[in-house]
Amino acid sequence: xxxxxxxxxxxxxxxxxxxxxxxxxxxxxxxxxxxxxxxxxxxxxxxxxxxxxxxxxxxxxxxxxxxxxxxxxxxxxxxxxxxxxxxxxxxxxxxxxxxxxxxxxxxxxxxxxxxxxxxxxxxxxxxxxxxxxxxxxxxxxxxxxxxxxxxxxxxxxxxxxxxxxxxxxxx
Amino acid sequence: xxxxxxxxxxxxxxxxxxxxxxxxxxxxxxxxxxxxxxxxxxxxxxxxxxxxxxxxxxxxxxxxxxxxxxxxxxxxxxxxxxxxxxxxxxxxxxxxxxxxxxxxxxxxxxxxxxxxxxxxxxxxxxxxxxxxxxxxxxxxxxxxxxxxxxxxxxxxxxxxxxxxxxxxxxxxxxxxxxxxxxxxxxxxxxxxxxxxxxxxxxxxxxxxxxxxxxxxxxxxxxxxxxxxxxxxxxxxxxxxxxxxxxxxxxxxxxxxxxxxxxxxxxxxxxxxxxxxxxxxxxxxxxxxxxxxxxxxxxxxxxxxxxxxxxxxxxxxxxxxxxxxxxxxxxxxxxxxxxxxxxxxxxxxxxxxxxxxxxxxxxxxxxxxxxxxxxxxxxxxxxxxxxxxxxxxxxxxxxxxxxxxxxxxxxxxxxxxxxxxxxxxxxxxxxxxxxxxxxxxxxxxxxxxxxxxxxxxxxxxxxxxxxxxxxxxxxxxxxxxxxxxxxxxxxxxxxxxxxxxxxxxxxxxxxxxxxxxxxxxxxxxxxxxxxxxxxxxxx
Lengths: 171, 538
Prior knowledge:
The complex is a heterodimer of chains A (171) and B (538). Chain A is of the alpha/beta class. Chain A is built from five helices and five strands; from the N terminus they run H-H-E-E-H-E-H-E-E-H. In chain B, a hairpin with a 7-residue loop joins strand 4 and strand 5.
């Protein structure tokens, strides 16, 4: 029937609408692991103010959150707890690996190390990786914006990166 | 009585003890004593009676033997005694001293799990930092994790799920008279990955058992793997809130062991950035402490002020938190005129803001009700558990390493050490507020006296190789005494680095002070202790 085609269109539009809502009201989990947590706090506080991007409502309970910012080194003792927290979050859910440690182990990797998990992506799926040790709050803000972009254009890849400013000769 | 004539008393209670008097300015020890293991309890009792406190206890792997090193010190004026006990690897059993100094309880558990030693008659010989069921001893020389780490993590996840299944059916059968509440490791008021097992009766706390190790990153093992320079980044990441001070701790122990002279200008710059960092750390504490107590606004104010300090430190070092600004014999970069001008402007501004904080908070009824007479730490408890820093000073213990040791050029400046009277949460609040003002005074004086000259020693030390020996140096971190016990074998890598961190000892008294209190008081106490979890777990 011709109607089905129209319904399809309608369906995707609702999904887009929902994604737009999701993207603009991300609730991150209050979940600091190490040094990066302080930068995460800074970005939520006065100067950087994550609320401007709709992502400033930090919730301590995983059941109220939709983005987990893994801010710091994941130790082996902590890994099962992170998995548990991730499992408790309702879908759709997103994960940001903040800093070198959460992305790949950072400066704490050496041959034969026994203490940490080299990257949180060994336990949970990660949407955005933010490099830095620790990343500046601006980097986290940029990461949140990229995540919003990813949520809005769920099926469209790749994500647009901000263009580099043109380099003038006189500068 | 001083340490010098204390040696005769030591030989009385431990006849076979070998006593040496090393150079204090180099090694940081007034006396070193080597005893047999069966005399250690009697000797510790002697130190206890003579008003010492147990500063640190660490294990060392000497290939053939294990060594347990005890550091005893006195409040007020540093009088440090190191006691060594050596045991064979076949029979690594040492009598516990935790019945004399409760602070030894955790130190011994830590040494036991990292080296596989055993402490005879220890009240609770279970794992402290490593996962509960682990069987390896990572600080034994030559240990490497050869296993499949991905599989190990998977095993841990399965184990956790199995435990959850095991626990859940028994929940209904539990007696409700007294019960356990689990707090953390993901809990907003534990300031990171601390887990507390609270034993409750009704609303009252009967006891607390902290579970550590969720933030363990093996800093001590990494120190043995890299050379002296390669340990710098780790020093900025142990207590990341006062990274400058921890930089100084590492610089201090290596410089003193090698006799490196630091130029005047570098010492002044070190003092300025460290004290600024201390203020930043206390500001962050103020914001989060009040956030825990339910006040959101101060958090925004203190972070605004903290950002200004972070800007200044970034101007000097190029980083925002985890600084690696110090180097052996000075600092990495010089500060410019702009830094001096802006720091002066900041001091003026900060003084006004501190007045505002006092107006808003110090007489605030809610703050008073939540903190006054809550979590009282007596002077004696502070000594038994080896508490230092603002936590001990709030209880009236006059111990500040900037005065007691004395460290670097602090003797040239005027500043007071604020002391509390009752040792409750409110006193810890007032002591830290006062410390911020004293730090501002220090920075101001140092800026006035900032001399011209080199900011690094010339020529720069090419090879960092301290002579074989044992060294212990401490600095006053933002949370208390940060000591480094360094064992060198004369090579370019440290043989053993034990980090004596303030939060570890400050947290160990939690069970003692929280008996009979309620959950909201617990949050106030945790906030007032000002914990940084990687500082505990290292």
